[in-house]
Amino acid sequence: xxxxxxxxxxxxxxxxxxALVTAAFLLTAGWGVVAQRQAAEExxxxxxxxxxxxxxxxxxxxxxxxxxxxxxxxTSAKNPADISVWFESALRLGRPKMFxxxxxxxxxxxxxNADARQIGNGLMEETTRIEQVLAADRExxxxxxxxxxxxxxxxxxxxxxxxxxxxxxxKKRLSQLEQRVQHNVDHLFDLARAREQLAIRLLLGMSAFxxxxxxxxxxxxxxxxxxxxLVTERAKAVASGDLRPHPVVASDDEIGELAQTFENMxxxxxxxxxxxxxxxxxxxIGKMAAHVTHEIRNPLSSMALNVELLEDELGEQxxxxxxxxxxIANEIERLTALSEQYLSVARRPALxxxxxxxxxxVREATEFTRRDLQRKHVELELEIDEALPLLRVxxxxxxQAFFNLLRNASEAMPAGGTVRISAGRAAEGGVDIxxxxxxxxxxxxxxEHLFEPFFTTKSHGTGLGLPITREILEAHGGSIACxxxxxxxxxxxxxxxxxxxxxxxxxxxxxxxxxxxxERY
Length: 521
Known about the structure:
single chain; alpha+beta; six-stranded mixed β-sheet; 12 helices; 8 strands; 9% strand
């Protein structure tokens, strides 16, 4: 047995829609948080790293400019001893402090990922080399002031020129260091600007994606809940009296199941109303039949007896009178049969169920009507499964149902034809019987009222044969349906449900494809 497909629920679909919208929103919000965090980290890096580093490098350069300026006037100074104090203070305190600030700023600015640390290491090495190169100025300054103290103007001028050259070279290297720092700052700004533009584009894209997902989910939820609105409209129509069958919108969730269940309920109500109407009509027939039986049956019996007595009194010479009396007797018999038919409808006997072979019941019913059908040039074809199960049925009433169907079939073919009867196992258990003729058939409107009491298309019919037949089938728990036959004619499908108690062992173990017994009269 195939596993049952898991039913999708409306709650699950709505929850999935909400989850998708929430996921899109969280994705957008998450990206915004990441972008804001990166922007905050970069702002912190600028404030605590690059800005102090730029200021520290700028201070070193400014100090070097002052150093070079002082060197330009050192040989012409009136009191070189005062200037020597400034140079000594710059060499002992100023330069070490400023270069220490540069190294500290580099350490703070480039402590992130491996690439940042590599850049920081390069700047740190360059700063150290510049400091080491400028550290040699101490000895030259000492020699310069010694030459000034000894009034060695020529040697002092040479030392001053060497110090100026070194100062210019040191400033150039400091300026290159500043350019490297500025380049890193510009690169950081470029990255921040590109990230900002990317963040804006992604934010717009994710916002549009979220709106799109929300719109799609709203449309999906509306489509999922649409059958519920149709069920509501259908309920209003049913409340106003519309019990006609309507197609159900296919849906594999509980709303679809509700719609199908509601439509099944409407069908059951329509069937119950139809059965109630039929019961009311049959009750009216019963009252009428009782009245007809009481008022007409006894007079008819007396008339029939008197006609027989008159016929016995007449001699051979009154042959014409005998003919008239026989015609009267035939009409009396017809009226008696008609009253009996109405009486059978009103007082349907209780079922007397016995185990029967449905194939034998069908054969006996067709054999009983065979001669009558042959007189009407109607040929019978039987196709009966020999392995039909035994069912608990009322043989007499079931034969009456077959008699009604065979009579209708023969009357549908006034010029003769073939009636085909087949009996076989039903797919859901029980027995299916098909009776079909080659008559002119009938339209859909006629088939719709076919099983209503007193409905007939014949000039001499009572309209009770098929209602009685359906009543007999439904009393057995079965059903009967009428459908057109291709290319012409009518087909009646009868179904008798299975009776497990009455199913013999041999029949129960019969193969799925049982041999068929065909007969032709």
